[in-house]
Amino acid sequence: MKTSPLFGTLQIQPGEFHVKEYENFSLGIKREKEGWILLSNKGDWRLKNKTPDFSEGEYYQTGNANTLLLTPSLPAKPLVFMGSKLNVSPKQKLTFYLKIPLTIQAYFAKKSSDNLLKEFETQGLSNTWFGDPDSGEPAFTLGSDFFFTPKDARLQPTEALCPVSILNSSATVLKVERMILRVGNMALYKNNDKIITSLAALDYKGKDVISVADYRFSKKIHGEKAEIVAKPKISGSINMLKINFHFIKNIYKSE
Hints:
mainly beta; 5-stranded mixed sheet; elongated
């Protein structure tokens, strides 16, 4: 059984298989004559000292290509951060970091929407609802952990670092309670073996004032030579800003 780093390109001949694994996530990949068998499991086959049972996997008919690409991606729904421990005084800016679980996209031959076989979650996320009952939207719960430096985050290979900057342009203290991150508007960058999302820059202007959110590249955070490994799933900055203007107004709740 061959293992290798989580993301990258595999060349597998018919009859051979590889395993991608880290802690509680494992992905078995077997090449058949004209297709692939993919098998995900929360257990670790290496630690269990056994070969994956590919009879439980899913088969994909793809033709003669022996190349499989595994690329990082972000969750399919927005993420809600519970930031009740964070407070920002008027005219102050707070920068902190979050850890976002990555998903794995499997492509045969080349990275193309037509060649996507499946997307795998590496960590389980709980469903939640963000906003008012009649005008909100489904999302995932990210949790409440935050870090003031990238080093403190101690990323795992299945996680991306998410930098967040909040500017409080209002005249009152901002208590961050529930904040939504629209990961569909985020790109993924690679720098020094770390995967980093776009900077989420939020300008809070007050409870009854529409605030602004922007997701962008930052040389200071990402580095001048950062490699982009995934473009935003939702393109178009105008639509992004319209969406964010709408939900940013309801991110924070005053006592």
